[in-house]
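Case study: Omega-3 fatty acid desaturase.
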Amino acid sequence: MASFIISECGFKPLSRIIHRPITGANPTSKTSFFVNSNNTSSTDLIFPSLKFTTTSSRHTNWGLKVSVPLTLAPPDGAEEEEAAEFNPGAAPPFKLADIRAAIPKHCWVKDPWRSMSYVVRDVVLLFGLAAAAAYFNNWVVWPLYWAAQGTMFWALFVLGHDCGHGSFSNNLKLNSVVGHLLHSSILVPYHGWRISHRTHHQNHGHVENDESWHPLPEKIYKSLDNVTSSLRFGLPFPMLAYPFYLWNRSPGKTGSHFDPNSDLFVPSERKDVITSTVCWTAMAALLVGLSFVMGPIQVLKLYGVPYWIFVMWLDFVTYLHHHDHEEKLPWYRGKEWSYLRGGLTTLDRDYGWINNIHHDIGTHVVHHLFPQIPHYHLVEATEAAKPIFGKYYREPKISGPLPFHLIGSLIRSLKKDHYVSDTDDVVYYQTDPELNSSSSKSG
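Here is what the predicted structure looks like once written out:
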């Protein structure tokens, strides 16, 4: 289609490519450039002895106004070839500051009243569900209650997670108080978790230094006994891992989130860890006391089963933020790792109706790079950042009302994402065929 030179004078359409000799240049050479009728961008044309500068101002300007692409239009099939050559493990052509600049300023604003409104909403729903289940008290209602209440426990965790990142408010004391109340109520040691989760964000995508669902190097993987291997890769066990992780961390790492002397923490953080462990112990004691008052079966139905549903939600969501994409995700070591490159290996996920319930935690890439953004701005911030991300952003598959499609993603990943190379600095998950064939793996 013919292009137009747009100006206040209204030139007639020209052919798509103009050949014009340049004074002072080789008289036999020609310089080609495009003329774009949309006039939507500004680009400098630099020739050997002449420079045209384009503008997009609405004010009158009698200079030549053209929009010129930096290169000629690619031939047919070139875009497909370029996409096929995209290397997800390569350093991106943009910087963290470029992403930050693209995100609207209001997305960084933390509103404590709005944050507290979500806490009030979730707590009211939680107690309402418990009251309704106790009132009806029949086996038609209990399974529905467990699924709903376990999801609400998970929602409480996400709000406490915001407190841990400081995205709940700018008030450190408010964040700590609300974080302790929310996390202790679901048996999570707030400061112990907060500090190790900070380590996860600071080292995301690093094989050895990451803290959550990081890959096992081949040497450690092959040293696992059959029981440990089955627990890590055989459903449903990986989806029940979180409480055990709090006590013992992952294979190849040592320390406990409850122990102030753990190598997870520096000496200045020990008082915080003790405070959170005391709060956790108080909640456990309260549950024991309620078991004597209400009976252990009733406490199990009202709290115990929803707690394990919450654990499954936590492991399910956090695992899928870092696993199973049609294009393998890189992990890094040494000089190849950077904060930006590590953050770009995370994935956004769509959870349908659950997106609102669990506070858009599936909008995860921007959260990983900028955890100080409140959850209620993550969707808008992500949309603003997508043009910068380009192919480094992996669009999530749209979910139905409930995210059943992600169960298949989980199963596929556990069958193929087993270990990574011990030595390379840019690595991808490899598959152990023996584990998939259910044959005995040497310890």
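For the exam, be able to explain this: The first strand starts at residue 17 and ends at 20.
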